[in-house]
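Subject: for your reference before the review

Hello V.,

The reviewers asked for a structural picture of the protein, and I figured it would be easier to keep everything in one thread rather than splitting it across files. Below is the amino acid sequence we used in the manuscript, unchanged from the supplementary table.
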Amino acid sequence: MNAKIVDQHVECYVRSLLPEHTGLLKVLEQFAKLHNVPIIHPEIAQYMSVLLEIAKPTRILEIGTAIGYSASVFASHMKRGHIDTIELNAIMAEKARETFEDLNKSVPEVSLSIHLGDAKDVIKTLEGPYDMIFIDAAKGHYQTFFETAYDLLSKNGIIVSDNVLYKGMVATDDYIVKRKITIVKRMRKYLEFITTHPNLETTVLTMGDGLAISYKKGILNE
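And here is what came back from the structure prediction:
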């Protein structure tokens, strides 16, 4: 299913402008394509690369590891620091561990810890603060992930939520697939929550499958 977020000609043109990855990132892209593993879109990877260079986070929490692709993008643009990443699927987590072993050879100043389990439970065992939280897991649980992790985010920290327009279905009922109605309703609720939250400044970008960037101005319920 096409994402229906950006005109295909525009998307292809934008992607043609992106630098081509080499090394581990290229290998992971090929693996993901061969095994049909979803990873962040090329333009999202480039956006995150630029954001990391600007924000310069040293501690990141990622919710949804998969094969470790996005965490590898993050680590590649950190001079030093630590990434905690959470994955529910044991097979994916094992692949990510292999990824991080290879990654450590090129970015030894960035350590990565993968936590196997349900993010709602794992988050409660972690210690902040984190400069950035990246949410890319079960789409119907974004608000739960957010509310559980929010207090671990440093003041002036950033939360990035991927796939928030979900194939365009979040924007219009015209695109909704019946079996996805619950996910769409929950994502709409989540977007309303983060765009009206008094302690956040949030923007929603029409790139990839939709990306929300939230800047923390204060403390929840302050």
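For the response letter, the relevant points are probably these. The radius of gyration is 17 Å. The domain at 8-216 is CATH 3.40.50.150 (Rossmann fold).

Happy to draft the paragraph if you're swamped.

O.
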